[in-house]
Structure formats: structure tokens, C-alpha cells
């Protein structure tokens, strides 16, 4: 508990980035450490080359890559190491390969958790869920012990949302919001299909939302989407296309790729992982980006599941959910269906969820405190303060007193 409190206070006090400072001092920024699990797999292979070339954190950012694999994966991984060496990437200051999690996650700034157990012959979904939950529980523990204090963790390996929950629950000293499950690929797929339908370049499509689980229950929502700045539904007026073609196609796009390619999405998944972390690190404040993050009860979604919502990435490794969007009846039904699946997934791995008692106070709570304070909602401020541990409440009271006296 002591470590938890000290860590959360330190996290609050720590500057979120030294970027602006560093750019003034040198052409290249001091190295940031990035870990990738499953680095010898097909997504990992596509991913590490692009990270090394500077697409993840910027072309002025030196990178140390920690590649993590199973014992069996170490041999193919040595080939990936050779190719990284042969690429002579100027930004890559160091590469290491390991199957030891604490070593691989030591002081990292970002981790991309791609490695996961594949579905074996005759394996049921619940068996796959259990096998992967075990992997992500171990990784959560190791991240808790070894990762950098402000690190961000992107979970790609499936079932991504529930794996993120398991990893976070096993990392009691980390904020839940440090763990994000990837739904950016689903969002990009949805944007691509809308662009095709409207016959416009994909860059003209924005505010497409993926709600819920990275699975066939996800809800790709066009209610708020825009095409060339205009409301998408005023351009795509065919609701039947949206409900009977667009939504199921996005939900099952992974299977469509497997049917055509004979292998699952790899380059596009790597691309989406790069996009997710790049936007979190460098910011993309004008976009609504879908990320599965810990629910805070917004939109009536149950607490304690990793549910995809629209977020705004402000840069410096910080993101905010987009709140208070109007939700129509059809959307509510679709959002509930995917929530139900996530609750069932959570319940099936309960034995690997040690509980929240030692968790630091979440960003969600501090953000709600800030919002209520700025809006002058005194009752809400007092309610949140009464739920906070005393050391936070004392600091908030002091801030309030000094503001009142200035
Ligand atoms: P591959 O089977 O090609 O590669 C997985 C790699 O992970 C292998 O090299 C394996 O040795 C390694 N691995 C397994 N367990 C590990 C562990 N405990 N620690 C470290 N490494 C481990 O799969 P790939 O196509 O790369 O897919 C990886 C994961 O991404 C899968 O779970 C897949 O379902 C998931 N996906 C998630 C997507 C998303 O949008 N969130 C989309 C693409 C992809 O389907």
C-alpha cells in the first residue's frame, strides 16, 4: 500500500514528457524504451521494423527495443534481430531479446503486448480465454515490478479487452488507464469501408466510433461520423446498408482477411498499433480515436471492463474519453450487447483478478474531480473528495484554499 501511495503521488508530480526541453538541446531525443511481446510473430515482425524506422515515436526519437518471446520463439527472434541489424536504422540505439519478462519490461516507456496463445485444434473460446488470461496475469505482475512509472501498455493479443483487464488487475501499483486494448484496427477498417461507400479518400472520414469489445459484438457506429466535415448520415442515407452490410462487415473483417489471405491480419494490425501509440505519444487532438480503456460508468457502461470508446489524444502520453454524446435507441442496444459479452469474459477469468484494494486512485476519478471543480459543482466535488484517500483530499483542500486566497 505504501508503495502504491508513493507511486501515485510521484506519477501525479512527474512531468509527462521532456520532449519540448530535449528538442531545444539536441537534434535527437534521448532514447525511450519500447518492449514488444510476440516479436517473432507475424504482427511483431511487421511492427518492429516500423518502430525502428521512427514511425512510432517520431523521427527525432532514439529508441531502445526490448523484444520478448517464449523460449520456443527465441530462435526465430534471433533472425528478426539480424534483420534489425541489417536495416541499419539510425534511430535504433539498442536492441535486446529475452524470454524473461522482468528483464524485457525493465524501465520501459511503452509496451506492446502482441504475443498470445493461438487457438489450438478443438480449443473452445473459453479455453483460449483462460490460457491467455494466465499469460497476461504474469505480464501484469512483471510490468508492475519493472516498467517505467509513466509507461503505457497497449494490449493487442486476443481477447485484447479482457487481457488488458487481467494485466491491469495484476499490476496493483499502476493506474488502470495505463493499459489500453487495441480497437484502432476496427476503427480504421470502418473508416475504409465508409470511404469506399462514399467514394472519398479515407482522410475525409472522421468521428467513426468503435464501441465495446474487439470481437464480433463490437458496435461500429456512424451516428456521429463526418465525411468531408459533413454529417455522414446526410451523405450515406441508406440505413439498411449501415445495419445489414457495414456493421457486420466491420465486425467480421478479420475473418474476411483470413479467407482471402490464408492468414490473419498482420500488416494492418501492426499499422493500427503504431497509430495508437504514436497518437498517444505525440497527440492527435483533432481526431476521435477509438481505444478500449477502463470504463468509468460513462454511457451507463459497467465499471471495471475495458470498453472501446472515442478518445481524444492530447499528446504527452495523455488521453481523454469523449463524454456526453447522445445515444439513440439502436446504438444503446448494440452497446449493451457488446458490454454483456465483456462482462461474461470478465466473469470467466475472475480467478485471475486479485481485486482493486491496492490500486492507486484512477485518472478517471481525478479527472472528474477537476471537471466538477472547474464547473463549480460543489456537491460533486465534496462527494469525490470524500471517496479519495486522505492524502489526496488534503492536497485538494490546500489547492482550493490557495486559490480562494489569491
Ligand atoms: P503469431 O502466432 O504470428 O505470433 C504470436 C507470437 O507470440 C509467436 O511468435 C509466439 O511465440 C509469441 N508468444 C506466444 N505467447 C507468448 C508469451 N507468453 N510471451 C511472449 N511471446 C509469446 O500471431 P499474430 O498474428 O502476430 O497475432 C498476435 C495476436 O494479435 C493474436 O492474439 C491475434 O489474435 C491478435 N490480433 C489482435 C488484433 C487487434 O485488433 N487487437 C488484430 C490482429 C490480431 O488478430
Topology, element by element:
Blueprint: H1 2-13, H2 19-25, E1 29-37, H3 42-52, E2 61-68, H4 74-86, E3 92-98, H5 101-104, E4 110-113, H6 125-146, E5 152-155, H7 160-169, E6 179-182, H8 184-198, E7 205-206, E8 209-211, E9 219-221, E10 226-227, E11 230-231, H9 232-235, H10 239-251, H11 253-261, H12 267-282, E12 289-294, E13 306-315, E14 318-321, H13 329-348, H14 363-374, H15 378-387, H16 390-405
Parallel strand pairs: 1-2, 1-4, 2-3, 4-5, 5-6
Antiparallel strand pairs: 6-12, 7-10, 8-9, 10-11, 12-13, 13-14
Helix pairs in contact: 3-12, 6-7, 8-10, 14-15
The structure holds ligand NAX.
Largest pleated sheet: 9 strands, mixed
Sum up the overall morphology in one term.
globular
User: Uncertain regions: pLDDT < 50 for 5+ in a row?
Assistant: 1-25
What's the count of strands? 14
- As a percent range, the share of helical residues equals 40-55%
Amino acid at each position: 500500500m505504501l508503495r502504491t501511495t508513493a507511486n501515485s503521488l510521484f506519477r501525479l508530480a512527474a512531468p509527462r514528457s521532456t520532449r519540448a526541453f530535449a528538442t531545444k538541446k539536441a537534434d535527437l531525443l534521448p532514447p525511450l524504451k519500447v518492449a514488444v511481446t510476440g516479436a517473432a510473430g507475424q504482427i511483431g515482425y511487421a511492427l518492429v521494423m516500423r518502430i525502428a524506422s521512427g514511425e512510432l515515436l517520431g523521427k527525432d526519437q532514439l529508441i531502445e527495443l526490448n523484444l520478448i518471446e517464449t523460449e520456443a520463439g527465441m530462435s526465430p527472434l534471433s533472425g528478426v534481430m539480424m534483420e534489425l541489424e541489417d536495416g541499419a536504422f539510425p534511430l535504433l540505439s539498442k536492441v535486446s531479446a529475452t524470454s524473461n519478462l522482468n528483464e524485457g519490461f525493465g524501465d520501459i516507456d511503452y509496451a506492446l503486448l502482441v504475443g498470445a496463445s493461438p487457438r489450438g485444434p478443438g480449443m473452445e473460446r473459453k479455453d483460449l480465454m483462460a490460457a491467455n488470461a494466465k499469460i497476461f496475469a504474469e505480464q501484469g505482475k512483471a510490468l508492475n515490478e519493472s516498467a517505467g512509472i509513466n509507461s503505457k501498455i497497449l494490449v493487442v493479443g486476443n481477447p485484447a479487452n479482457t487481457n488488458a483487464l487481467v494485466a491491469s488487475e495484476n499490476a496493483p501499483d499502476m493506474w488502470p488507464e495505463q493499459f489500453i486494448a487495441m480497437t484502432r484496427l476496427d476503427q480504421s477498417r470502418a473508416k475504409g469501408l465508409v470511404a469506399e461507400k462514399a467514394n472519398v479518400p479515407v482522410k475525409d472520414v472522421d468521428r467513426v466510433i468503435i464501441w465495446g469489445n474487439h470481437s464480433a459484438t463490437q458496435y461500429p457506429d456512424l451516428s456521429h461520423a463526418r465525411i468531408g466535415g459533413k454529417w455522414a448520415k446526410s451523405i450515406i442515407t441508406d440505413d439498411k446498408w449501415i445495419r445489414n452490410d457495414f456493421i457486420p462487415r466491420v465486425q467480421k473483417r478479420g475473418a474476411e482477411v483470413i479467407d482471402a489471405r490464408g492468414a490473419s491480419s498482420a500488416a494492418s494490425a501492426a499499422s493500427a498499433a503504431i497509430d495508437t501509440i504514436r497518437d498517444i505519444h505525440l497527440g492527435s487532438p483533432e481526431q476521435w480515436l477509438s481505444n478500449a480503456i477502463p470504463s468509468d460508468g460513462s454511457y451507463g457502461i459497467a465499471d471495471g471492463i475495458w470498453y472501446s470508446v472515442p478518445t481524444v489524444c492530447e499528446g504527452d502520453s495523455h488521453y481523454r474519453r469523449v463524454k456526453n454524446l447522445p445515444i439513440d435507441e439502436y446504438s444503446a442496444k448494440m452497446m449493451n450487447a457488446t458490454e454483456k459479452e465483456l462482462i461474461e469474459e470478465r466473469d470467466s477469468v475472475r480467478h485471475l483478478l486479485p481485486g482493486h484494494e491496492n490500486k492507486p486512485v484512477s485518472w478517471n476519478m481525478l479527472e472528474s474531480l477537476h471537471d466538477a471543480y472547474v464547473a463549480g459543482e460543489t456537491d460533486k466535488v465534496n462527494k469525490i473528495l470524500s471517496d479519495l484517500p486522505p492524502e489526496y483530499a488534503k492536497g485538494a483542500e490546500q489547492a482550493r484554499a490557495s486559490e480562494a486566497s489569491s
